[in-house]
Amino acid sequence: MKLSRSLLLITAVITSLCASSALADEIHLKNGKVISGLVVDEGARYTVVDRDRKFAIKKSLVKKVAESNCFMSKYQARLDKLPVDDAEAIFEFGRWLDQNDWSSRAKLAYREVLDLDPDHRGARRALSYSMYEGEWVSPDELNRKKGLVEFAGGWYTKHDLAELKKEIESNKKLRIAYAERRRINDKVNRIVQKFATFNKKKRAKAYNELYQFAEQVNSPELRKFADDTKAHFDRMHKILCAKMMARTEIQATHTQLKKPIDVFQTALGAAIALNASQNPVRIQLPELSVAKVQTTVDIPAGC
Hints:
Helix content is about 50%, strand content about 25%. By secondary structure, the chain is an alpha+beta fold. The radius of gyration is 51 Å and the shape is elongated. It starts with a helix and ends with a strand.
């Protein structure tokens, strides 16, 4: 009697690694992490084997390697000594693998036990078999015998499965409706942002776009929302325009006549020759005071 090919496959891997230049139990990385497993020095890198994992690590990332007897070496030693025809010994080997967090390899050992002893209760239980109507059955076989139906990784009665499918279909419709609602909301939000302008034509264009979209999705609520939105932004526009002030430059000139006005008398032309003393001429010389003002003031913008 020989162990299965799948169980022996890891043996060849471990044997080849153990023949390499360096074995260790822990790799201490420069970032503080520690990796455990069978470590093999391969020049510019280390290869690490730990249970079902095998990976490479660049030496530039490694701080130190601590050599010791690793779990994989212990596994190899136990496997070398394992009797190939002793069901109980192989079962205990499987339990040891389970205890060391290698359940996938433990299951292989339990299956070897069943090849030797199909009624081995411990191996059957470890593989989740159950006794049903006098025979050992797997979990899936037990569910089928009980009339259950497999669906999406679970087992259900026919009634429960029908109800579940109804719920799934309902949820699917809800998801579709939610996605459509979200699409509408996103579109409406983008259009509403266009209302925030002092340009009357642009606000009118935004209103037409929103109203047409409401017609497209056949939504009376959205049509009313379009009207309300237009009224709101028009009202806000008037309020803001009333409060907004425009800074304007003013240039003014102030002129004032100085008083009293200076007056003097004189004789003109022939009047001087005939009788200057009897025909005087009164002349006023007005003088103006001029002041210029230049300033800036805030006045209502008027939009």
